Amino acid sequence: MIDIEFVQPDGTRERVFSREGYTLMEAAVRSGVAGILAECGGACACATCHVVVDDAWSETVGPPNSMEDQLLEMIDRAPTSRLACQVKLKQKLDGLVVHVPARE
Ligand code: FES
Q: Is-contact 5 96, C-beta < 8 A?
């Protein structure tokens, strides 16, 4: 199992456990993590699954793909922003920490 921690804008931390092969978005939605809406269902078209990867994990998670990068350009992104639907969970991500941005 892969252990993921979502940090909410108010500092609240939620731990989610998922199997390898799911996306970070799927793990969040299945566990009802607040702020991960995933309105397009993972089609890389809505950016409502935006997360900011903790600095300590950015290298392991890696950069966004080109389609994802274009979508991130349209929102208020951070240097380590990713769309959770584009992050496939692998065992090397066990212990991952991501931040949920404040939504307006
Ligand atoms: Fe829509 Fe990720 S769920 S872009």
A: yes
